[in-house]
Amino acid sequence: MDHKLYIQDVTLRDGMHAIRHQYTKEQVQEITLALDKAKVDAIEISHGDGLKGGSFNYGFGAHTDWEWLEGIAEKLTHAKLTTLLLPGIATIEDLQRARDLGVESVRIATHCTEADISQQHIEAAKKMGMDVGGFLMMAHMNEPKKLAEQAKLMEDYGADCVYITDSAGALLMDGVIERVKAYRDVLKPETEVGIHCHHNLSLGVANTVVAMQHGANRLDASLAGMGAGAGNAPLEVLIAVIKKMGKEPNCDLYQLMDIADDMIRPLQSRPVRVDRETLSLGYAGVYSSFLLHSERAAEKYGLDTRSILVELGNRNMVGGQEDMIIDVALDMLEKKEK
Amino acid sequence: MEKIKVAIIGSGNIGTDLMIKILRTSDILEMSVMVGIDPASDGLARAKRMGVATCATGISGLIEMPEWNDIKLVFDATSAKAHIFNNSIIEKYEDKRIIDLTPAAIGPFLVPPVNFEDNINVKNVNMVTCGGQATIPIVAAVSKIAKVHYGEIVASIASKSAGPGTRANIDEFTVTTSQAIEKVGGADKGKAIIVLNPAEPPMVMRDTVFTLSENVDPELIRASIHEMVDEVKKYVPGYSLHQAVQFEEIPEDKPVFIEGLGLRHGLKTTVLLQVVGAGHYLPEYAGNLDIMTSAALATGEKLSKLAFANS
Prior knowledge:
The structure holds two protein chains of two kinds.
Chain A: E1 6-9, H1 14-18, H2 25-37, E2 42-44, H3 65-69, E3 80-85, H4 92-100, E4 105-111, H5 119-127, E5 131-137, H6 144-157, E6 161-165, H7 173-186, E7 192-196, H8 204-213, E8 218-221, H9 235-244, H10 253-264, H11 276-284, H12 290-301, H13 305-314, H14 323-337
Parallel strand pairs in A: 1-2, 1-8, 2-3, 3-4, 4-5, 5-6, 6-7, 7-8
Chain B: E1 4-9, H1 13-25, E2 29-35, H2 42-49, E3 53-55, H3 58-62, E4 71-76, H4 80-90, E5 97-100, H5 112-115, E6 124-126, H6 130-143, E7 148-158, H7 164-168, H8 170-183, E8 189-197, E9 205-213, H9 218-235, E10 239-241, E11 246-250, E12 256-258, E13 262-264, E14 266-275, H10 287-307
Parallel strand pairs in B: 1-2, 1-4, 2-3, 4-5, 5-6, 7-8
Antiparallel strand pairs in B: 7-9, 9-14, 10-14, 11-14, 12-13
Helix pairs in contact in B: 1-2, 1-10, 6-8, 6-9, 6-10
């Protein structure tokens, strides 16, 4: 079955990580309307760690998710309003609240081996009449066949699409292709496949493109790469590449370039780029959202960020375990003082 | 004192671990019947091997058994939904008390070192959640010293230690634990997060508590937390502070924005805990199982000493 290309922007969700979840309501409003005008298919808005992510552990946002989301849906002319939910952080009640604010589509995210904790949320979202994506994070930590088994569970619960979510930006192109193929082998033809990349090894666009070539049709990207770690596949670059490949995405390339450079880059207080720290995330296979938290811990305890990140990788920490950054830092401090 | 006869409903991980604890360690409680709904379950098979009467037809089967008359205490380790039904039957029997290990929370939350005394005469008490049992004592320890505006906990457990019931009911964990952080821990606002980690070998349960309280001398908070850790250790030997307690002042001109509270400043306290299980049913990594069943056992024993002593 040939699915239509579907571009989802994550500037206002994954991009939250890059600025410690501090977008103002006005910025969210302005960026959303610009993205809608440039005709992306879907716009995801929430705290970087999904609905109700605001916390000591993940960072408190400048606003609640409800404040960011309200008043947006009614202004959109083309794009779907979407959000993210991590079971264990937010609940079905929170999802209902987002639904009431006009959110039409949601991604339910779990670690790549824990799909079964998403059943109640996926089923509830379908009951609310939403489009639902299953979002299997840290996809590099599970081999293709087993990852596809997890995707199948999400499909069974009712997901319309299942994603390969390379949260650590650690997958190489072959790894992406194997996973897309494994998904297509087991999923029903009508179930869509999605790809969400991080640019830590500079493969954000390349990985997205090979995923598309092998059957993924829902592609995630963000303006100027605005996202955790070295960011996501930069939206304007991805659209340029896809157009050069002869595909016809809905989006307006020049408008996207302008929003990226004029509206987003000035917000990036810590540059979103491949550098020593973000490259280490991809190289060591570490959850990209750990970046700023590790930089803060390194500063507070007088340690090296890269060493903290590598140690988090050695300890097999998964998305959501930001508290273990302090733990690792204190262990390293103790060792250093001895 | 004659031992108090008890039944456990639910032959999954939690029920089975609790059974083993009662059989091996309790001088006060006597395992009478293990109740399940799946005759092929490992928990029921194990109960039979250990010489415990079993019933594979749930609560309706249990009340038909001759042992039922003498049972004084029922531990329910099924699910929130099943507990509502089980409770509706058991509550008709005036001589029986219920300790609820599901997140149903029909009765008040009970965390042994914090509020046991308030609930001595309550027919049905609820044991919150594994993460709640591990962290709420710490929130309460801070509350003893300073007003706690906000209490947040993160429970990280090994994937292998989360049974199907836990997995299908993650929302119940977050909702129940958050409520208990407020009601028992004393925080104005509570938040709970749970993370499953599939690493091999499985990671030992970790719990992190963050509180934001009014500004007081951190040493007073530190001392109160240490005292509380020692209290919990009495019934969960594998419970410990994994790192020194961390403090940070959130200044008034750089407050944090907390949903439901607004802008708040004060003293942030971070407590990193570890719970090593006793290895009764699941191996040591399953501290989440151990702290839940140990809290339920401690509650059952204390109740028995007090409530049933004269009967």
